[in-house]
Design a protein that fits this description.
This protein has 569 residues and is of the alpha+beta class. Helices cover 62% and strands 12% of the residues.
Length: 569
């Protein structure tokens, strides 16, 4: 019993092709004079209509198409001759040969190559000898048709092939098909010309024709991809395919110019699709993107949809689109999508840059406020002390604290304020104030016999020393035995803060002062901001020692070091 699955397999392209060839073989073996050739050829044409890759065999045909098929079949049967058979085999050879490069399965490609060999052998060794009345070749071809070619058909029938992809089963490369048809037609007409003009027999004429065509193909192969300066036919042919509708180079220049002018992704997309209006074959277009949708022109039944990541373009043509034009459309849409994605990334980077500026400004202000509160706490401790210099130190430090408060308030209103515009103070005065401000802390101070009155950026030094001392105090909370050493050098100016606690973990130390790092006590934002600020003012903050019992940070005047090095040179 024939089930629907068995029927679908029997009428699939895999089995239709051998059935079509067996019917053709039987009809040709009988010859054009036999009365049985007409029903066999009609059956062959019917199976061909089910197999042919031009349109799907299971679809319904219109009345006009049905009338055309009936007229073509009636004309072929009425004017049946060896010439008609030769033209049919030539067209069938081109149609089958155009599908060889469609399939990826090796056995499927081997099947179609075997079909091409069969059709070529039948045409050259049976049909043409009967057409040109070459009796000796006809006798040899009869043996071939009766005993050799049926074996080839049997092998093709039982040859196991992979399942063809649905999207590739109805694909024909028109250019390949046309080239193969013209090449085989040239063999037929060339053999006829040699037989007529040279008065040669069929085999000699066929061999001469094949030899000349081989030489011509070798010459075209050398010109297609030459090595001696000539650009080659491949470049010319590629330029011809790519220049469809409008000059490709000019349109690409306009697209690049639009990408340079438009900074917004949505504005660029509108400009790019507007450029597509120059195509004469285009009747309308619609698009969908993350930035919105739009359309222009009139819609038609001939459409193509191209998806490029988040961009979806639907182009409507005035007539059916050929393969070369489809290639052109996909290439243009890929270019539009590439520039569109570049504009989206550019816009995202701008947003990230703005957020980073806001984050860095807020982080800097937060640490400025923390340092000012620490300074205010130290000044409160000084005010409560009974030392004679307390009043003098308060008079020196309060104006500086006032300036820092004013600078912080100014940054809140003007985040773009230049960091280099900071107050200056003599190094010896700042050192004395620092020691007095932290007199309640257990810190071991080291300084030379005398310090010069060289001016330093007091806000930078206060920010860095407060951050470093505060970090060591957090370490001392876990280990009260941790000692702090602060050392200052005048030439070049350097400030070193050390402790004898545990070293900083290597993963944290590798990125410390270069970015935000995650640790138990925070994210390292204060030291990161302080290091960047020091670099802007000509100083360098670095971790110069990171081992057990000696963890040292150093702030050094990098400008003074360079000037001193140049003087020594």
């Amino acid at each position: 019993m024939l089930t629907p699955d068995i029927v679908s397999r029997l009428f699939s392209g895999r089995w239709l092709l051998p059935v079509m060839l067996w019917l053709l073989h039987g009809a040709l073996l009988l010859g054009v004079g036999s009365p049985w050739i007409h029903p066999l050829l009609l059956a062959h044409l019917g199976v061909f209509l089910l197999w042919q890759p031009l349109w799907r065999g299971e679809r319904r045909i219109s009345g006009g198409e049905f009338a055309f098929i009936l007229f073509a079949a009636a004309a072929a049967i009425f004017w049946l001759s060896w010439w008609a058979v030769a033209i049919w085999l030539t067209g069938l050879f081109g149609l089958v040969g155009a599908r060889v490069f469609v399939f990826r399965d090796r056995l499927t490609r081997l099947l179609y190559l075997s079909v091409m060999v069969y059709l070529l052998a039948v045409l050259l060794l049976w049909v043409l000898p009967n057409l040109f009345v070459a009796q000796y070749t006809v006798d040899a071809g009869r043996i071939l048709m009766r005993y050799v070619l049926p074996l080839l058909l049997l092998v093709m029938t039982v040859l196991p092939v992979g399942k063809a992809r649905p999207e590739s089963t109805q694909t024909v490369d028109f250019i390949y098909s046309l080239l193969l048809f013209m090449l085989l037609a040239l063999v037929v007409l060339g053999s006829l010309a040699f037989m007529t003009l040279g008065r040669l027999d069929y085999l000699d004429a066929l061999l001469r024709t094949l030899f000349l065509i081989g030489l011509i193909l070798l010459a075209f192969g050398a010109l297609w991809n030459p090595r001696f300066g000539f650009a080659g036919l491949q470049v010319m042919f590629s330029r011809y395919l790519l220049n469809v509708g409008t000059p490709f180079e000019g349109w690409l220049a306009q697209l690049t110019e639009a990408a340079q002018r438009e900074s917004d992704a949505a504005a660029y997309l509108r400009r790019a699709v507007t450029l597509l209006e120059d195509f004469q074959w285009l009747s309308g277009l619609s698009w969908q993107s993350p930035d919105g949708t739009g359309q222009f022109g009139q819609f038609s039944k001939h459409s193509v949809v191209v998806q490029e990541n988040g961009l979806r373009l639907t182009l409507y043509a005035k007539q059916a689109l050929n393969p070369a034009l489809l290639l052109h459309i996909h290439l243009l849409v890929k270019l539009i999508g590439y520039f569109y994605q570049a504009k989206q990334r550019e816009q995202s980077l701008r947003d990230i840059t703005r957020l980073q500026a806001v984050y860095e400004t807020g982080s800097r202000l937060t640490h400025d406020l923390k340092n000012m509160l620490q300074s205010l706490l130290s000044l409160t401790a000084i005010a409560q002390s009974r030392e004679e210099r307390a009043q003098q130190l308060l008079q020196q430090q309060l104006p500086l604290l006032t300036q820092r408060i004013e600078m912080t308030l100014l940054k809140l209103h003007q985040p773009h304020i230049v960091e280099g515009e900071t107050a200056q103070l003599a190094l010896n005065a700042w050192w004395d104030a620092l020691r007095l401000r932290n007199q309640h802390q257990a810190i071991d101070w080291h300084e030379p016999d005398s310090l010069p009155d060289k001016n330093i950026p007091v806000a930078l030094f206060d920010c860095i020393i407060d951050n470093l001392i505060d970090n060591v105090m957090k370490k001392r909370q876990a280990d009260p035995e941790v000692a702090i050493f602060v050392k200052i050098q005048p030439e070049p100016v350097s400030l070193t803060v050390c402790d004898n606690g545990d070293p900083i973990p290597e993963k944290i130390a590798a990125n410390l002062l270069r970015g935000v790092v995650a640790s138990e006590s925070g994210l390292g934002i204060g030291l990161y901001q302080a290091a960047r600020w020091a670099e802007q003012l000509g100083y360098r903050l670095a971790l110069i020692s990171n081992r057990g019992g000696s963890v040292c940070f150093e702030l050094r005047d990098s400008k003074g070091m360079k000037e001193r090095r140049n003087l020594n040179l």
